[in-house]
Write a structure and sequence with these properties.
binds cytidine-5'-monophosphate, 233 residues, 44% helix, 16% strand, alpha/beta
Length: 233
């Protein structure tokens, strides 16, 4: 797998819409992210079909449960031959270690495993009031990233604004997978802190996750190519 790539967030409600979108790509096979909505509506078959078409898949299900349950669930996901899966770092180091155990196949190979630190929908106030975590949120994010590294994970999902600090704390090889990407002339939608693909490259993002700027574009293939050119070019 290329360390640096553009992942399209396929946030569609069902298989028909997803394949109508993917069929537009006749020359390239973009890396795709499948989230909860699509996975829960279509089941594991959607992953098998997208993999069979030759795409790499980041299955974004953000597991968070007791270690034994996560281990068993990960072993099922590993059998789907996905390329990246994720967990919540809040599930503890023991849970993340169990996730790796479950993911590892008999031949020693496994999909990449990354952790969600603090969701971007959680701000300092909510973390203090709802979760009773009183530390500054950027310290919490770095602590969770370090826990993920200790557990043997391959990286974290984070804002491109945090990519440099994550690499500083956890090493250059520790992957930063960053959503919140917008073109300079594009609509921000509900994303608050955004970066262009070119700025994300400068900031040290390894894999950028791009949804609506590509899926809602008039010409999604052209938007994808623009993204690849800005980020990888
Ligand atoms: O359409 P957009 O480019 O905003 O899509 C970004 C994708 O990344 C969505 O699937 C969203 O759920 C996901 N994501 C995010 N912010 C996070 C974690 C995941 O936008 N902190």
């Amino acid at each position: 797998m290329n360390k640096r790539d553009v992942i399209i967030a396929c946030d569609f409600a069902g298989a028909a819409e997803t394949f109508e979108f993917l069929d537009k790509f006749t020359e390239e096979k973009p890396f795709v992210k499948i989230g909860m909505e699509l996975f829960y509506s279509e089941g594991p078959q959607i992953v098998r079909e997208i993999k069979a078409r030759g795409h790499k898949v980041f299955l974004d299900l953000k597991l968070h449960d007791i270690p034994n349950t996560v281990k068993k669930a990960m072993s099922v996901l590993s059998g789907l031959d996905v390329d990246i899966v994720n967990v919540h770092a809040a599930g503890t180091i023991a849970m993340m270690e169990a996730a790796i155990e479950g993911l590892t196949r008999a031949d020693g190979t496994r999909p990449l495993l990354i952790a969600v630190t603090q969701l971007t929908s959680t701000d300092q106030q909510r973390m203090e009031d709802d979760l009773l975590i009183k530390e500054p949120i950027d310290k919490v994010v770095m602590h969770y990233a370090e826990n993920a590294k200790k557990a043997g994970l391959d990286g974290v999902v984070c804002s491109p604004l945090e990519a440099e600090a994550v690499h500083k704390h956890c090493g250059d090889d520790f992957l930063t997978v960053t959503p919140g990407i917008r073109f300079a002339d594009g609509d921000k939608g509900d994303q608050k802190r955004v970066m262009t693909p070119a700025a994300a490259k400068e900031a040290g993002s390894d894999l950028i996750v791009v949804g609506r700027p590509i899926t809602k574009a008039e010409d999604p293939v052209a938007a994808y190519r623009r993204c690849v050119k800005e980020f990888l070019g």
